[in-house]
Amino acid sequence: MPGRALAAVGLLTLGLFGTGMGLAELGVAPPSVPGWGALDGGPAGPALPYSRPVGITIPAIGVRARVEAVGRARNGAIDPPPLEQAETAGWYAEGPAPGEPGASVIVGHVDDRSGPAVFYRLGALRPGTRIEVTRRDRRVAVFRVDAIREYPKSALPTVEVFGERTRPVLRLITCGGRWVGGPLGYADNVVVFATLLGR
Q: Which residues pair with 36 in a beta bridge?
């Protein structure tokens, strides 16, 4: 991945989305170079053509949610759905669609003013769990969870999270750790790493 892209990814750690009382930020900034998640040589494995996601289902933690396309906030971080839509997940539309080669990113709030939100139980997932992403072309991209990790927002490992460019993988991201308040909100990000199983 180009050095400029990795530097831009670091912005993700400065504010991904709001949670809690609406003051916290997710703290994830994707690369700014076009094609950051594109195929870059080597075997791609099973992959799907582009089609934007419209829904996500994770039976193990009771998630069945609509997915909307999101972009960047003014600070360069991924801009999640507004807190008024805390049960909706956001697909980062400048990266790969789920099932395409590269790391597709879906974000969601952990909570809002009234309580748990769409990704509240994300940290409870275990390796081997099934994630289903419904796409506009009516195909369902099925992913298997490989790992669940928690990182300080100030130290998100951008290569580890966004560096995959050959295989179709999925990253689910929300806030986690302790509540610190202010513009940061929660201290950490919870990141789920998953790999496409089939079409």
A: none
Residues whose CB falls within 8 Å of the CB of residue 101, separated by 6 or more in sequence, listed in order: 37, 38, 39, 44, 47, 165, 166, 167, 168
Specify the DSSP element, H or E, that contains 159: helix 158-162
Residue 75, in any domain of the structure = yes
pLDDT digits 0-9 by tens, 50-67: 999 999 999 999 999 999
Determine the Cα angle at 158 with ends 154 and 164, to 5°: 160
Cα-flanking dihedrals φ and ψ of residue 98, to 5°? -55, 125
CATH assignment of the domain containing 166: 2.40.260.10
Cβ(199)–Cβ(46) under 8 Å?
Answer: yes
Total structural domains within the chain: 1
For 36-126, strand residue ranges (E) read 53-58, 63-70, 89-92, 102-107, 111-112, 115-116
Identify whether 57 is part of a domain. Answer: yes
Would you say residue 38 lies in a domain? Answer: no
Instruction: Give the end-to-end CA distance of the chain in Å, rounded to a whole number.
Output: 27
Amino acid at 100: E
Give the pLDDT confidence of 100-111 residue by residue, as tens digits.
999 999 999 999
User: Residue 42: inside a domain, yes or no?
Assistant: no
**pTM score, whole prediction:** 0.82
Look up the domain containing 182 and give its range: 3-31+53-198
